[in-house]
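Q: Sequence in, structure out?
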Amino acid sequence: MIVESGVFNAVRRGYNELELASNDEITDYFADVNPDAMSGHISNVKGIVFEQEVVAALNEQGMDAMLFEATNHPVSDIALMSDGDIAAEVQLKATDSVSYINETLAEHPDIPIIVTSEVADSLDSSMVLDSGIDNAALDEAVTEALSDDVLTDIATSTASDAVSEGLAEAVADVALPISPIGIVGALFGLPFL
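A: Exactly. Output:
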């Protein structure tokens, strides 16, 4: 399940002024936010939670994935590592907007995108991968954690339960394809190029 601690950790990661804040201080901060602006905050935190969940799942599935330090890293959101170097970069989009994903694909057709299940079900592209996490569940988890109403674990999903079990394999197939040079290297025991 996405527990509120994951949401609070996402807030601390995405909001410099809340980096050292307690859970209560974070809920107090968001209690004072204008309701019209709150949807933007929820969307921002939801994206960070999504990144954390996907990276945790990829690492649990044997892939060496890492978040970039900056939450607004240009073009991509996570790095896939090989021997301490970035082997590939992947975008993550926690949205239910198919048009947003299509725009992203048009702008960066060579960078794979891991998306929420609602969007993945609506797109047929080898560059779009289903995370196994529902956008609605992310919305609910973040909204409930940032309100004073619910201060218990939010039962939606966990990286190990919700994220597609084959996500790491699908990401490797799309983001780390074996090139002809890589095939020759593999024959001689060299790492993929």
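The chain has nine helices and five strands.
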